[in-house]
Amino acid sequence: MDELDKKLKVKFSEELETSEKYDTMLKDTIEKISSNKISRNKFNIEKNKILRIVAIFIISILVIGSTGTLGLLAYSALGGTIYGKTIPEWMGIKFSDSYRDYEIKLTGKSVSYNETTVDLISSMCDDGFTVLEFDVKLSKEDKEYLKIGENVYSEEELDEERNKIESHLERLVGTSEEQYIEKYKKDYEEELQNYSSYINTVQLLFNTKFEESTEYYNYNNNTLILDNEELWARWSSYQITQKVSEYEYRIYQYYFLPDDKIKNKTEFNLKFENIILINGTDKNNISDNTEMFVVNTPNNEKMINLDGEINVNVSKEKALENTKYIDVGSQMISYNKMNKTIEKVLVTPMQTIIKVKTVFYDINSRNVDQTLCLGFNVYNQDEKIIKTFQTETKRIVKYSDGTLEEWEVGDIGTNNDFSEATIEITEYIVVGNDEEINKLRIVPTIKENIEIGSHFNIDIN
C-alpha cells in the first residue's frame, strides 16, 4: 500500500459517514469505471492496476473536497426532477394520481429560527412509503447566510483541487501509466467542470446527534424516532427539495417503511427533534447522467439549528383499504448456490411493491463480496425495461455452528473469518403505478447488470 493509499484509508476510517470499508469503496469505484458509470469515456484497458489508480484519484478528489465538519462523500443515484409536478417523484417512481386523496393536511407543526420557519404541512402513508411535506420560508438574512442559490465550490477551491490532481498525476511520470496522463487530465477537468455547476439549496436534517468519538454530528437522516423508539433507516430515508420562490422551498422527506420494517404497525407516531437547516448541492441542478456527486464541502457548509420539535401521527389504514394483494404462486429462482423467492406482491394506491427473499448458501469470508452484489431488471408487458426503486431492509447470517447474527444492510462481514455460512436478505422492488403496466417480468442480475436467465412473472391485473 503506497502513501496515498494510507492517507485515503485514514480519511475514510476517520471521517467518512459510511459503513463501507475503503477497499470495498475502491473496488466498487473500479467496477463503476469498468462499466462506464463514472466517466463518459470508456477505458479499454485490461490492467486492474491502472483502473485502481483512476479509482484512487476519483475517490481522492471527492474526499479532499468533502471531508471536514460534515465528512460527507455522496455516492448518490439521481432520479427524476419534481419541478412543475404537483405530486413528488423519486428515482423515477411516479406515485399514483390519487396521491392527494391519501394526503393528510396538517397545521400547527412548526419549528423556527428568528424569521425563518419550517412547517410540516402534509403527510401520506401507505404500506410502502411515508412522505412528509415541509414548507420552508427563509428570511433574507438566513438565505444569504446559507448561500442558497450560490455555487458550492468557489473558483479558488476548484483551482486548489486542480493543483492537487496535477500533483497526483505527476507521480505517474516515468511509470508504465505515463501514456494515460493526458487522458486522466481530460477526465478530471470534466469532473471539475461538473463541480463548478453545483448550486446550493436548502435541506433538512432530523434527529441529529453529536458523536463524541468523532466530534461530529451524524448528518445522515438515518435515525428515525418511531413511537419513541429509534429506528435505523439506512437506505430507507430520502429527501427532495423543490424551489417555490426566492425565499420559499418545499422539502419532501421519504421513508420506505414496509410492514416488516416497523413490526406490522399500521398507525404510529414520528418525532423529529434536533432539527437543522443546512445548505448543500441541489440534486435537481445536476446532469441526469451524473451518478456520483459531492453533497457539501467544509468551506461551503452552513447550518441553522431550529428551535422546537415536531410530532406527527400517521396511519396506513386508509391506503390499506384500497391495497390489493396478488398471488404469484410458488415461483423460485435458483442460481449458483442462491435461491430467490417472491414473498409478497401488493398494489397500493401509490405503487406496486414486491418483497423478495434471497438465501445464499455456502458463503465464506473470501467469497462473500463476490456473491452478494446483485440486483434486478424489470420489464413491462411490452418487454420495455422500466424504472424501479430497489432496496434491502434486512440481512441475517447463520454461521456453520448455528449462530445467527444480523448484519448492517449492505455489510459483507469482512471483519469476520467464517465458512459454510447461510445469508438471508430481504429486499424490495417498487414500481410506479402506471396504468399501462399490467404485467411484470423480473430478472435477477449479477455484476455489471448481467442477467442470469431465469425470471419471475407477475400479472398485476
Features:
461 residues; alpha+beta; six-stranded antiparallel sheet; 28 strands; 20% helix; disordered N terminus
- The best one-word shape is globular
Helix content range = 10-25%
Strand proportion: 25-35%
Largest sheet: 7 strands, antiparallel
Structure annotation, total helices: 9
Radius of gyration: 23 Å
Mean pLDDT across every amino acid position = 79
Structural class: alpha+beta
Distance between the termini: 56 Å
Low-confidence stretches: 1-27, 32-86
Number of strands: 28
Q: Your description of this structure?
A:
The chain has 461 residues and is α+β, with helices and mostly antiparallel strands. 20% of the residues lie in helices and 34% in strands. The protein has 9 helices and 28 strands. The chain has helices at 3-15, 22-34, 48-64, 99-102, 140-145, 155-170, 181-196, 317-321, 368-371; strands spanning 89-90, 93-94, 104-105, 110-113, 116-125, 129-137, 200-205, 210-211, 216-217, 223-226, 229-232, 237-243, 248-256, 267-272, 276-281, 303-305, 310-315, 324-326, 332-334, 338-347, 351-363, 375-379, 388-398, 404-407, 421-432, 439-446, 450-451, 456-459. The strands form 7 sheets. Strands 18, 19, 20, 21, 23, 24 and 25 form a 7-stranded antiparallel β-sheet that branches. Strands 3, 4, 5, 6, 12 and 13 form a 6-stranded antiparallel β-sheet that branches. Strands 11-10-14-17 form a 4-stranded antiparallel β-sheet. The chain is globular and about 60 Å long. The protein starts with a helix and ends with a strand. Residues 1-27 and 32-86 have low confidence and may be disordered.
